[in-house]
Design a protein that fits this description.
Blueprint (H helix, E strand, L loop, with lengths): L1 H16 L1 H22 L6 E7 L2 H9 L2 E5 L2 H9 L5 E6 L2 E7 L3 H16 L11 E6 L6 H31 L2 H6 L5 H30 L8 H23 L5 H6 L1 H9 L19 H13 L5 H25 L7
Length: about 350
């Protein structure tokens, strides 16, 4: 019993002196729970539809159904659909409704269609006996939920594993003394960073190809765009995760502390990746989350069939962040040069 008590006392003393672990055990769960509450607590899907040619009564009916109508001309409605500003558009000609839908978000698409069908019953210029003509500009009717989330999941899985493996690997180099020995040679710090990126990069290329191929051709996740662009995006995803993982490893003293960064650095990004409707006050935070740009680029290619021009801004941000992380890695390695 004495030995058990002594061991327990040693563990308590060790944890008490480890402020980072205490903060992780006490503060991190509160942070994540607060984040989930703010995003999902009173979460109501914001469904916006474009009204091209329809009476005011239809707009009023949509508002009663908590659907936000916006008046557009025909070209403006199509542009709003393509840019994701609205989920559907409706035009009423000779009493018949013509509805275009963005099916890339099945949940919102179903809410919009149901609301439009219900609202047109009370519209004076619409004939409920005439079936609406529905066309999908993206996706299709009854698009599986996994197809909708699949693009984001591909980015998240690659980001998560590369971040963790790269961070722990560089940390082991440091704790084993290998990094310190390298720094005592004429090798420059930036050469070490670039060398690690290139070395891990070979394996991240293989991982990106494997995961993308498996999801698209084995799991049959919807893929409208070019597979080559998917490989390019996932490769950039691996690079930014690699450089961020290396950066975080410089702040950790052991593998356990490196794992502690996962709920602080990786998991919160899921909430800002586009899977959830964000409250107005939290929209701004998604612009500083790398996974947001990764998920947006993958969604544009896989579900909407867009090309390199559309995702160029996302790719530029991802590459820019990777360069910044590499520069910070180079600067932080200076503190480990002992000789």
């Amino acid at each position: 019993m004495m030995r058990v008590s002594a061991l327990a006392l040693r563990i308590v003393t060790q944890l008490k002196n480890d402020r980072r672990t205490l903060a992780m055990m006490l503060a991190a769960p509160i942070l994540l729970l607060s984040l989930v509450y703010l995003i999902l607590g009173d979460s109501v899907p914001v469904v916006k539809v474009a009204v091209v040619n329809a009476p005011v009564e239809l707009e009023e009916s949509l508002e009663d159904l908590n659907i936000m109508p916006r008046r557009y001309d025909e070209n403006g409605a199509r542009r709003a659909l393509e840019q994701g500003e609205v989920i559907a558009s409706i035009t009423i000609i000779s009493g018949k409704s013509y509805i275009e839908v963005d099916g890339s978000n099945p949940t919102k698409a179903k809410v919009a269609l149901a609301g439009l069908e219900q609202a047109k019953i009370g519209s004076m210029s619409s004939r409920p006996d005439l079936a609406s003509e529905v066309s999908y500009i993206y996706g299709y009717e009854d698009l599986p939920t996994f197809d909708n989330f699949g693009s984001t999941l591909i980015g998240f899985i690659i980001f998560f594993f590369v971040f963790l493996v790269s961070g722990i690997s560089l940390l082991q180099e440091r704790t084993s003394g290998t990094l310190e020995k390298m720094l005592s040679t004429p090798i420059r710090r930036w050469e070490i960073v670039v060398g690690y990126v290139l070395g891990f990069g070979l394996f991240t290329v293989l991982q990106s190809v494997l995961i993308s191929w498996f999801c698209v051709y084995i799991l049959n996740v919807m893929m409208v765009g070019q597979f080559a662009l998917i490989l390019l995006i996932t490769l950039f995803t691996a690079v930014i995760a690699l450089t961020l993982g290396m950066l975080m490893s410089t702040l950790a003293n052991n593998e356990f502390q490196m794992i502690q960064f996962v709920p602080l650095i990786v998991i919160p990004q899921v909430f800002f990746s586009g899977l959830f409707d964000l409250p107005p006050g939290m929209e701004i935070f998604k612009w500083i989350m790398p996974l947001h740009y990764i998920a947006d680029a993958l969604t544009e290619v896989m579900i909407r069939g867009k090309g390199i021009v559309t995702i160029s801004l996302d790719l530029a941000v991802i590459v820019g962040c990777s360069v910044i992380f590499m520069i910070l890695n180079t600067l932080l390695l200076k503190k480990y040069r002992r000789i």
